[in-house]
Amino acid sequence: MSAMSDGTVVVWDQSLLAYDLGDHPLDPVRVELTIALARSLGVLDRPGVRLVAPTPADDTALARVHRPDYLDAVRAAPNDPLFSGYGLGTPDNPIFDGMHESSALVAGATLAAAEAVWRGEARRAVNVAGGLHHAMPSRAAGFCVYNDPAVAIARLLDLGAERVAYVDVDVHHGDGVQQIFYDDPRVLTISLHETPLALFPGTGFPDETGAPGAEGSAVNLALPPGTGDAGWLRAFHATVPTLLRAFRPEILVTQCGADSHRLDPLADLRLTVDGQRASYLALRALADELCDGRWVATGGGGYALVEVVPRAWTHLLAVATGEPVDPAALTPPDWRALARDRRPDREVPLRMTDDADVSYEPWQPTGEPDAVDREILATRRAVFPLHGLDPLDPAV
User: Fold this and answer.
1) Smallest Cα–Cα separation from 308: which of 340, 351, 337?
2) What is the pLDDT of residues 76-129, one digit of tens each?
3) Per the UniProt record, which residue ranges are transmembrane (predicted)?
4) Over the stretch 12-30, which tens digit does the pLDDT of each residue have?
5) Could you point out which of 106, 139, 157, 247 has its C-alpha 20 to 30 Å from the C-alpha of 339?
6) CA angle 86-87-93, nearest 5°?
7) Which residues contact 395 (CB under 8 A, 6 or more apart)?
């Protein structure tokens, strides 16, 4: 690691919108509207904020995570009308023109974010177009072709990182990142998600704790459908800070999918934009406490394209670049006009808040637990002893 700048790198270029699966829930308009909202609110013009245009990840970087034959398949698929295999050509992962190039560019953007932070060019870095956490070494999955968080983590390890923490707050289990580093004790993966009993990808149970030699390196908190801000934040604070403090990461990488929101059409958690904002503040505080501020943040899922994602990720960008946006702030009129132009069928939010109370009761192992508390205890029992921690001690 080099001496560190206090600034923030935001990796962005319009070309990132080319990761476009067509008539599909993962619509790049959500990223376009995020950047437009952040720009309109002045977040991207703050002192110390530097916008960096990405370059595509090369095959060497991608092959740290993905098999060479899979890279060949991604390149070849758009030119072969009879192509099948590797998870491509499915409803979740349709084949599209320029698939390799646009996917490599998303991975390159997260690589640039990670390198900027590790090399001391910025304290924090964000790629809201990234977070494609389901892609596997030889298979596309869950709207994801190349696993950009894993590619970036692999680069950090190659640059000398000895302890990288990855925290995933997407509503879906961060299965690809977990699998890729399941046997690597240098990488701690923590995923808070809706229970795999109810939601894709069907993994992420508490007993998934890492391969032999890396026991305790995977952490999964599977929350029941209907969990709202208070339960989610209680679960986060009952697990994530303690485990990160035990692991002592040098850098924090996060996947900040906004699909945990109550309006998201593909899942059934009930968070608000205010609860999501609270999670970003907590992640920044942990990076400041444990990693000298080194934080690489990516986007992820989120399918309420106008109503939720732009506000949530603008809060993320604001938290990463300095002063959080006041939840009571109005969305600017020029942004509302753009959102109506892009998606006239969607309700355009007038304010940066859902007017939610984000207070929560800290977890306690006593009394009659509710469904969230049972999942907290299951996760703590599965993984805390592997870090030398007492799962029943609420003080840890």
Assistant:
1) 351
2) 999 998 999 999 999 999 999 999 999 999 999 999 999 999 999 999 999 999
3) none
4) 999 999 999 999 999 999 9
5) 106
6) 135
7) none
